[in-house]
Amino acid sequence: MLPKPEINFQRTPVTLIIMAIVVALELVCTFDPERRFYYASNVKLGMLSLIWEGELWRPFTSSLLHVSFIHALFNVYWLAIFGRVLEPRFGSLRFLGVIVLLAYVSTMPEFIIDNYNQPVDQQIGSVGFSGVGYGLFGMLWIGRRWRPELREVCNDAIVKLFVGWFFFCIVVTYLNVMPVGNIAHGTGCAFGVLYGMAAFAPRHRIRWIVLAAVASGLVLSTLIACPGHRGYEEVRQRAKQRRQIERLFQSIRQTPPVEQPLEHP
Question: Are the C-beta atoms of 157 and 208 separated by less than 8 Å?
């Protein structure tokens, strides 16, 4: 039997606020499907190569968008279940930091690998909170080894469900039945396990904290530079061309006018 969500704003304000944002966005998009593209592009919430033009918020905001109401409902449910245990334990501010970090370290690998050789105008951004959900699951999965109380929301049945769903999604993606962000699921879970070791492991905690920080830093560094990625290289080339044009116009403006000699009658 699946656990029941807990609605308690005093204990889990971050969890409930994120849930409300996801549900609100999805309700609007469900009744007005054109809003999905509008939010992703015009409002700049979706994941695109524009991250390399300074729009660094996109990996997080894209996790708030979903492809359907069922997709959003599934992720919101597990956020409520996992958040009711992790947010009071870590505190709301730290928990928010974990969520944001998981959004980045799961979304960036998905986007980079899926679009590595794609031109900018053909690149596809992933959406959804699943990478974060798998990250929270990974934290609880490893954490329950030392904190038996975590089994309340991460029992053996839930572990089987998440592991089974992970491989099921790989199969349906391979068969072209439905595209799924499997890389985001996998990297989210891997980083969740790493963060869980840093948070719950009774021994060598400093090592795990350092390892988690280094691994996260490597992924986050791709927000600034990702050599070899076609999207990044095209964005960098456009930026170089803009700088050359700006320097050209600047040199033209700074060139003193040529004085014409006076003609004597």
Answer: no
Q: What is the DSSP string of 196-260?
A: HHHHH-SSSHHHHHHHHHHHHHHHHGGGT--TT-HHHHHHHHHHHHHHHHHHHHHHHHHSPPPPP
Model pLDDT, residue 259: 58
How far is it, in rounded angstroms, from Cα 134 to Cα 123?
24
Name the token pair of 161. Answer: 């469900």
pLDDT, position 231: 82
Which tokens hold the place of 186? 């996998």
Q: What's the pTM value of the predicted model, to 2 decimals?
A: 0.87
Q: What CATH number matches the domain at 13-249, 3.40.50.1370, 1.20.1540.10, 3.30.450.20, 2.30.130.30?
A: 1.20.1540.10
Which is more confidently placed, 127 or 144? Answer: 144
